C-alpha cells in the first residue's frame, strides 16, 4: 500500500497550538507594566527603607518572571507545534513553564522571608510619605493589569485534524494564572500600604517587616498550588473523573461492551487524550465506539483497542 493512501487514517498533532492565543498579547502588555513597576518599587523600598515595599516589589518581580516564562511558552509552543518529535503536540510546554515559574516563586518567597527577618533584627529608618506614594502607585498598576487580564477569554480556534472538534471554546488557563498573579500582587500592595500607614501614624515599625513575612507566605502558597497543578499534567496524572465516567458510560451504552482499561491525560489546556480497552462478546469496531463519544468532552485524541471475549466462563472475566 502506498503511503499516500493512508491519509484518511492520519491526522495532525498540533491540537491548535500553532495558533496565537488571544491571551498572549494581553500577557505581554502586563509583563511590561509589571516589570516597570517592579523596578520602581524595589528601588523605592531600598532608598526609603521599607521592607514591605521591597517585598511587594520582589513579589511583583516573581510574577513578572513567571509571566515572562509563560510568554516564552506561548511562543515556543506555537513555533514548534508542527514538530513531529512532540508525540502529542506542544500543549504541555505551558505546564512546564508554569512549573518553572512556581519553583522561582518559592525562591523569591525565601528571599522575602530572609529580608524581613534581617529587618526585624536590624531595623532601618523608613521614609514613609514617599514609600506610601510608591505603594499606592503599585496598587493602581495592579488594578489596571487586572482589568487588562480579567475579561472573560476564550480561544476561538477550530481544530480540524480528524480527532478534535470544531467550535469548541477553551479557556486559556495561562491567562487565568496571570490574572491570579496580578490579584496576589494587589493584595501584597495593600499589605504594604497598611504597614506603612501603621508605622507612620502609630509607630508600629515592626509591622513593616511582618508584612514582608505575610507576602512570603502568600507567594509560597501560590507556588505550592501551581506546583501541584502543573506537576499533575507533566506526570500524566489521570484526567478529570467526570470525563472518564462519561467515556465509560458512552462506551458501555450497550449491554455487551465493557471498558477493561481507560487512561485519560492532559495534552494541552482543556484538551485530553484517551486510550480505552474494550472487551465484548460481539464487539463493535473502534470507529463505532468512537462515534458513541460526544464532541463536547475535550477529547483531542482517542485510541480504542477492542478485544472479543469468546467465552462466558466466570473465571475469564468476560
Outline:
The protein has helices spanning 22-48, 51-79, 93-121, 128-150, 173-202, 207-234, 241-251, 286-292, and strands spanning 258-268, 271-280, 299-308.
Descriptive notes:
- The protein is elongated.
- A hairpin with a 2-residue loop joins strand 1 (258-268) and strand 2 (271-280).
- It has helices spanning 22-48, 51-79, 93-121, 128-150, 173-202, 207-234, 241-251, 286-292, and strands at 258-268, 271-280, 299-308.
- A three-stranded mixed sheet has the order 1-2-3.
- The protein has two domains: 12-234, Alpha-lytic protease prodomain-like (Up-down Bundle), CATH 1.20.1510; 241-316, Alpha-Beta Plaits.
- It has 318 residues and is mainly alpha-helical.
- The chain starts with 21 loop residues before the first helix and ends in a 10-residue tail after the last strand.
- It is built from eight helices and three strands, in the order H-H-H-H-H-H-H-E-E-H-E.
- Residues 153-171 have low confidence and may be disordered.
Q: What's the main sheet like?
A: 3 strands, mixed
Q: How does the helix and strand content classify structurally? A: mainly alpha
Q: How large, in whole angstroms, is the Cα Rg?
A: 26 Å
Mean pLDDT: 78
Total domains, how many?
A: 2
Q: How far do the termini sit from each other?
A: 36 Å
Number of strands: 3
- CATH topology assignment of the largest domain: Alpha-lytic protease prodomain-like
Low-confidence stretches: 153-171
Strand order of the largest sheet: 1-2-3
Would you state the CATH class of the largest domain? Answer: Mainly Alpha
The helix count comes to: 8
Helicity, as a percent range: 55-70%
Q: Name the beta content range.
A: 5-15%
Amino acid at each position: 500500500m502506498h503511503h499516500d493512501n493512508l491519509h484518511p487514517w492520519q491526522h495532525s498533532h498540533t491540537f491548535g497550538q500553532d495558533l496565537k492565543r488571544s491571551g498572549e498579547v494581553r500577557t505581554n502588555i502586563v509583563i511590561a507594566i509589571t516589570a516597570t513597576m517592579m523596578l520602581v518599587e524595589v528601588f523605592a523600598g531600598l532608598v526609603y527603607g521599607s521592607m514591605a515595599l521591597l517585598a511587594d516589589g520582589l513579589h511583583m518581580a516573581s510574577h513578572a518572571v513567571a509571566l515572562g516564562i509563560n510568554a516564552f511558552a506561548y511562543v515556543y509552543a506555537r513555533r514548534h507545534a508542527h514538530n513531529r518529535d512532540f508525540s502529542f503536540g506542544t500543549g504541555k510546554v505551558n505546564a512546564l513553564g508554569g512549573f518553572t515559574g512556581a519553583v522561582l516563586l518559592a525562591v523569591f518567597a525565601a528571599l522575602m522571608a530572609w529580608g524581613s527577618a534581617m529587618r526585624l533584627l536590624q531595623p532601618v529608618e523608613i521614609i514613609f510619605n514617599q514609600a506610601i506614594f510608591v505603594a499606592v502607585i503599585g496598587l493602581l498598576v495592579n488594578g489596571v493589569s487586572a482589568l487588562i487580564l480579567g475579561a472573560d477569554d476564550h480561544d476561538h480556534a477550530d481544530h480540524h485534524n480528524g480527532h478534535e472538534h470544531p467550535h469548541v471554546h477553551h479557556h486559556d488557563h495561562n491567562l487565568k494564572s496571570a490574572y491570579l498573579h496580578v490579584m496576589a500582587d494587589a493584595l501584597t500592595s495593600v499589605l504594604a500600604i497598611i504597614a506603612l500607614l501603621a508605622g507612620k501614624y502609630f509607630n508600629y515599625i515592626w509591622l513593616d517587616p511582618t508584612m514582608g513575612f505575610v507576602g512570603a507566605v502568600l507567594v509560597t502558597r501560590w507556588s505550592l498550588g501551581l506546583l501541584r497543578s502543573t506537576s499533575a499534567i507533566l506526570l500524566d496524572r489521570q484526567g478529570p473523573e467526570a470525563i472518564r465516567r462519561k467515556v465509560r458510560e458512552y462506551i458501555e451504552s450497550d449491554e455487551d461492551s465493557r471498558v477493561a482499561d481507560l487512561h485519560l491525560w492532559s495534552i494541552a489546556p482543556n484538551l485530553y487524550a484517551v486510550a480505552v480497552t474494550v472487551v465484548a462478546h460481539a464487539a463493535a469496531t473502534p470507529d463505532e465506539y468512537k462515534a458513541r463519544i460526544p464532541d463536547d468532552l475535550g477529547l483531542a485524541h482517542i485510541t480504542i483497542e477492542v478485544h472479543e471475549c469468546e467465552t462466558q466462563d466466570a473465571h475469564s472475566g468476560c
